[in-house]
Amino acid sequence: MTSKARYTSRYARATPDVLMPPNLQDMGPLPFSPNSFAELDAWLAEEGWPPKHMDAAMLEGYLVALLVWPIELSAGAWLPPIWGVRGWKVAAKIATTDTYNRFLVLVIGFLQDLERRLTALPPLRPYVLDHRAPIVSASYFAGSAWATGFMIALQENSSGFGSRSASARSAVEGIARFASLRTAKAAAMASVSAELSAQVAKLMHERLSRRELQPLLLSLSGGARGGKPRRAPTRRGSVADAGGTVPSGTA
Asked: Whole-prediction pTM value?
């Protein structure tokens, strides 16, 4: 090896991983268990994330909103808010191929599991609203974080809010009012979960009755393979007018 080759080999910079938005249809069905949720919750509780990343409670509310509200978004649009950035950029916390792929498997497995629960007969409550275990990544009341995540999804993707039924608008209002709730009482989660679940059931019933975008995950699949991430039009005022305070970012 020549001296020039040795110098180049020694000081050449490693090529960074090129991490692209996934296509959900290509990933296929993914397993998701209570252990998967615990792993994701613990991961989101670690240090090193951007300040506005979501905790597990906020993430569940966010994903539920994406499923029950009829929108079409690429994965490149709805994934970055989870780790706390805007536009397509992967957080340094998961910026290697292995960590990024594992995080995607957990998040998309979670999304698929939520769809199964929401469409079951009778519907099953998701993990956070089932309130069987504390959320270790939550920095404040999990019911409020859940509602905040739901409203973040609608804030960014509120297309068609004005044309929805009175029942749908009422359900959003019912969820929004919990976004600013702060309580240190763990016992309060039971009643808050029951109310949030009831409002989600209203929205889910209306979506299924309209036969929109079945199955639900197709609206979040990323569109054409290799396409650029696309954001839905933002109409911030329409959701804020629903009667709740819409946060400008995650906690």
From this structure: 0.80
